[in-house]
Amino acid sequence: MAAPEITSSDPDGFPYGVWHERHPALFERLKGAFPFSSAQRAALDALLEETRHGSMEPLPDDAPGAALWNGAWDRGHYGKRWTDAPFLWAESYFYRRLRGAVGYHAPEGAWRGIDPFGPFKDAELAGDAVDEQLASLDELDRALVDEKTDALLLAALWGNRADLGFLLTAEEEGGDRPLVADEREALRALLRDGGGRVSLVADNAGRELIPDLLLAAHLLGAGRAAEVRLHIKPHPYYVSDATTADVLAALRRTAAAPGAAGRAGHLLWRALEDGRLTLDAHPFFCAPLGYAEMPDDLRADFASSALTLMKGDLNYRRLVGDRHWPATVPFAEVTAHFPGPVAALRTLKSDVATGLTASTVAALDAADPEWRTNGAHALIQVRAPVAGAPGGA
Questions:
Q1: Homologous superfamily of 121-383 in CATH?
Q2: Residues 134, 211: contact at Cβ < 8 Å?
Q3: What are the Damage-control phosphatase ARMT1-like metal-binding domain coordinates in residue numbering (predicted)?
């Protein structure tokens, strides 16, 4: 039986703080980053007030995306207080409403299609930290393939701390701590098979996307994958989620670097041209639903991959279900719906946790009461179903 869905109604809970601390901080940053009109600013203020004290209403029938939000994605939450609806559903809808408030979805006008988070992504990609990331690849250039794979997996994993939304109200921690679940050996074994397609479901743009791209270049260059399919968002979603424009910006940044990083960037550029690297921006990647409810075409896509790598906290919540699972529930059990081998690379920044040992949970609870949400801990988990078994590859 499934555990209860996580909501935001507990004033002492992490999701409640997202609505009452993180979102107000985000709106202040947005107003400082853009010369919004009085109407846009009023729309943002009204949305913030509604999320704190009002109830969710459906999109107007003629609004872009209304057929999905009011149809296929509707789960009966309209009319509820925002904090009483499932956190995953309500937060996803919040970002759709935010884009609407600033004119991103307007049928016409100067603000149509302007990424409200673009200035934050651009600033991060231009920072010195990215230069350091790119330069560090030179140190790995002569490493053995498995050593390089391991290092790049960890770089992609801990890169998830660069989530701009998380950093609005938290400081970066971790990076040198042991993983709370470490199944790298099983993951390396899957990657050694090579020859197939690896699907990489990206999370954030900017500084996080760089190690994802470097990992993709390594998998292709070392023969660990015949093809990499990078799954990204079809439009801006949460604060720093990667879109096609963000991938291209990160790719140009990488290709312009000297040394091994520049070579990796050019490898990826050629791979896009010859089809060894492909991009996918399925609408479901901006859905308020878990991957257990993915549509048939996306399910078939994942089923045809030799391995799927799920990056980041949001993808993890969608993969296992954003529920109050006991942290010891087996990862394989809550991902049994997924149509092939899947691995999660996740920095912990929300309440849900699965696949941990009882001793690990006890130690974490004693040492760090906020271990589930403060971004100081991370995990790598793998499910490799047996061929021919239900949910198997």
A1: Uncharacterised protein PF01937, DUF89, domain 3 (3.40.50.10880)
A2: no
A3: 20-358
